[in-house]
Amino acid sequence: MISVTSSRVPDTEETAASWRMGALFAENVLAMVGVVLLAAVVLFCFVGPMFYHTDQIHTNFPQADLAPGAAGHLLGTDQSGYDVLGRLMVGGQTSLIIGVCAAILAAVVGSIVGAFAGFVGGALDTVLMRLVDGFIAIPQLLVVIVLATIVVPTRLTLILVIASLSWFTTARLVRGEALAIRNLEYIEAARMVGSPWIRTISRHVIPNAVGVIVVSAAFQVADAILLLASLDFLGLGIPPPAASWGGMLSTGLQYVYSGYWWMIVFPGAMILLTVMTFSFIGDGLRDALESRLRER
Amino acid sequence: MTIFLIRRCLHGLVVLLIVTAFVFSLLHALPGGPARAILGPKANPTEIAAFERANNLNKPLLEQYFLWLGRALHGNLGQSYNQNQSVASLIAQRLPKTLMLTVLALAVSLIVGLPVGMLQAVRRNGATDRVLSVTALAAYSAPIFLTGILGIWLFAVRWRVLPAQAPQGTSALQILADPKALVLPVLCLGLGSMAAFSRYMRSSTSENLVQDYVRLARAKGAGQARILYRHVARNALGPVATQVGLFLPILFAGTVITEAVFNYPGMGLLFWTAAGARDYPTELGVVLVVGVATVVGSLLADIAYGVLDPRIRQFGRES
């Protein structure tokens, strides 16, 4: 009896393969650097404020524009008197939450659309993929800006706006995976014994594409954080006094002629560091996935 | 070839219809709908009702879409809220300047990125390769507004060697007349794709360097330079060329930020100011133009590859 009702046999293979993938990932030095850096950034943003108390709501003009090292302000203060170090922590929370949530949402939507298109095929596939072609043709940043001017910017709306424009690549990739396995024997067998296709998609097609989905999600977090920073920089993010790295840069730009370098260098470094972190992790996962595929 | 052309054009046409339908639905997603969008925030309900009757906005959506598409095809993209000018004329004034910025950035990123990638492949895993790889990754991850601000701070404020503002002028020629002021905007816009091209060229060259034809050329006594430029470069460029088309939309989107940072008087700055002023007709007009340009660009690129490479004609680009 071919393993249809009990998906145990492919399952254990899957588990072993994912273990191998994990080992390969750990071997990749840059990827490990990425994981460590990510942990550091998360601790900095979420645990940091518990130990380093700053007021990021009320302006404090007598303490404005202080250079790094001034009493009580390790990284200086900005034009409103906010402590830069504390603001980096609080601003990072928004970036990470929105970036990760938008990437996960996009990965989920993209996987479902891609799996259905590839597995069901036919007219549904054509329609969905032409839609994806059309959406991809319009640069994401432009549409995000238009949508951001229509909605009221909050964490939730920004997650929805960014996610709604980020699922296309995942959909394409997962569709490719679904196309590749839809004619394999165990899928045919599942179909033959009358497994409903929703079940086949959720039990076989999507688990098979998990590697691809995770890799593209890692890169998507980086993209989402960049996109959000661009919106903040253009003044279309969550408005002040809410803190954001992009917003800090955009105020910093106004003071660049006064030589207040700390207002641009620190938030810039945080954006760069976080984005590179997710790229490292994505690269490492991709290398691991590719060598796993080669082993097959 | 004819079948390939027809198939590819039909596909492009379908995608174009989707792009326009998408912009059309955005127009309807605007607060207050298209009537409010065109008449402006001060219109009263009577005016809106009259406008909707006069402009067929009370008809079924599908019919409205084709009417709107017909107007857009005639170059009628509506009137800007706050510039007292039609959107089409605003875009026509600024598009050439943005195209020039994009083309310059693309040229610079290819001129720098490709040789760097080849160098890395030759020195694969050596110190030069590693340093350049990390630099490229940083450059690729750095958002344009960050490199732009850092560029202004270092080159314009601290060292005072380059102006902080892009050249100003009403035509592309006037802008070209001030090349010094173009350096920072072009470099900032091109930096990311420069890094990407160096990556593609590195892997493409490395793959070619281990091929039999390279060993044969070496066996025949060809020098390293000849092997690289006469043999490897030509073969390695193919896969990279297919990527160039994909970078046009990315560069085009990048102009929004670049132009905002450097106050470059192009379509990106127009789009950004329109977004700030909630000037929806202008915003959507730019999105439409960019979307159409992207689709047409990728269509032309595909046809060009098809002409260059018979395999693509047969099997399409994906395979």
At the first level of CATH, what is the class of chain A? Mainly Alpha
Strand content of chain A: under 5%
Strand % of chain B is under 5%
Instruction: List unreliable stretches of 5+ residues of chain A.
Output: 1-10
The main sheet of chain A comes to: none
What's the end-to-end separation of chain A, in Å?
23 Å
Question: What integer value in Å does the Rg of chain A equal?
Answer: 23 Å
Here the CATH topology of chain A equals MetI-like fold
How much is the average pLDDT of chain A?
81
Helix content of chain A: over 70%
Q: Which structural class do you get from the secondary structure elements of chain A?
A: mainly alpha
Overall average residue pLDDT of chain B: 83
Number of domains of chain A: 1
* Radius of gyration of chain B over all CA atoms, rounded: 24 Å
Count of DSSP E strands of chain B? 0
Would you kindly provide a brief summary of this structure?
With 296 residues, chain A is mainly alpha-helical.
List keywords for this structure.
heterodimer; A: 296 residues; mainly alpha; MetI-like fold; 12 helices; disordered N terminus; B: 319 residues
Describe the overall structure.
- The complex is a heterodimer of chains A (296) and B (319).
- Chain A has helices at 8-27, 29-51, 84-120, 122-137, 140-150, 155-164, 168-181, 185-192, 197-208, 210-233, 245-254, 262-295.
- With 296 residues, chain A is mostly helical.
- Chain A has one domain: MetI-like (MetI-like fold, Orthogonal Bundle).
- Chain B has helices spanning 2-29, 33-39, 45-54, 61-73, 87-122, 127-141, 144-158, 172-176, 179-209, 212-219, 224-262, 267-276, 280-308, 310-315.
- In chain B, helix 12 (267-276) runs antiparallel to helix 13 (280-308).
- Chain B is flat and about 85 Å long.
- Classes of the chains: A mainly alpha (296), B mainly alpha (319).
- Chains A and B meet through helix 4, helix 5, helix 10, helix 11 and helix 12 of A and helix 1, helix 6, helix 7, helix 11 and helix 12 of B.
